[in-house]
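note to self — DONT lose this again. spent like an hour looking for the file last time. sequence + predicted structure for the chain T wanted, 476 res
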Amino acid sequence: MNYRYIESIAGQVLLVFSFVVLFPTISAFFYGERAEFFLLTFLVSLFLSLYFLFDSRGYSKTDIEDSDVYSAVAVIWLLVPLIGSIPFALCGISPIDSIFEAMSGFTTTGASVLTPEELPKSVLLWRSMMQWVGGIGIVVVFLIFFPQARKSSALLEAEYPAVVLPKVRPKMRDMAILIFQIYLILTLLEIAILFALGLNLFEAVNHAFTSISTAGFSTHSESIAYFNDVRVEAVIAFFCFIGGTNFALIYALTQRQIRAIADVEFKNYLILLSAGILTLTILNSSQFDILDSLRYSAFQAVSLATTSGFTTYDYDTWSDSAKVVLLLLMIIGGCSGSTSSGLKVIRVVILLKYASFQVFKLVDPRRVKVVRYGNSVITEKQMEDVVAFFVIYLFVLISSLLLLSLSGYDMQTSISATIASLSNVGPGMGLAGGSETYAGFNPLAKIILIINMWIGRLEILPVLALIFSAFRGGKW
């Protein structure tokens, strides 16, 4: 492992991050709150940045392996939440709870141990900003300012892994800037719409930050149910849907490639959401009239399928069948290359194709079968990679839920909390339900969920690269 390369990248990322912290600092001054919480965070980030940059001088720029790049991304996604937790700790929140909240924020999980109404406005804005930055990607923000970073393409792919590479692949800086521009325009548009619908500017900004990033933090304990406005629900659901769409598809559309809308993953994404909404509406029709059933079912299907985690109704009161549908949506998640997490629609499609491929080989082993994903041919290696990812994902999921159940939680809480953290959804069911917080979970359970959020956001590979590289040792 090339430690100095990792230090160099971490130093550059923390330098950019230092100035991100200045935004809530300004808001703290504006609201007459404790700005020193954020000033100290700024100084810690800046000091570590300068230390890493100084210590990494003269590292070997030619001897950098892909495992070093993936390890660097994994380290960055540990360091940034740790530093980002400082304002919470200075508010008197315990270290574990502070790290839990920060990791949940940056990984766009939206699981919380705090009561929003008890927090200063600058801290609420910080929670939302963490999710906004985490949604677009820490590495994406970094590449905008440091486009010449070594292995920039691999860094971006480590943060946004592509199962099947898009045909339109601009330069990394162009891609990073374009993603940022689209993200910023959509955010500003949502702020304007929510403000026009009656939300005050503070509420509009916070909810725009946390919905386009498919993240889920709210300024109210009741989440979106607080507003009780179907127009607000529709707007937030729409931007969650956009956030769950592949950025490569959005890029292609900006290049007037209208045919990109026929992308196989996007079509299956639409089918998944439509099927989820229809099924939930039918299952909930005995509890609500048809319009209310459609309203609550549609919002929760979009919110959980895109791994946003907003709520408009306590779905813990729904039938077991409806809960199973919600759990499946949480596991699958949105599109690859989006702000959402989960297995991703493309992987589920390829898993199904792989299953049929194996059955076909069993029935007729002599005949050559070509598996296609749209116009692309899926190689057997790509299919095996997806299967390997699924097996590891399943292993982490089962291990985590067993550990949670052994630490004293019922099976519904253990299963849903594990899925909600690993898929970066946030709220689960039972003690982790949409109307609850994770404040009552014991320290061991919180640590397990923190690790799950980290693994889920990075989609496993960078974490494995870091672990194996650490055991293998390295050089300075």
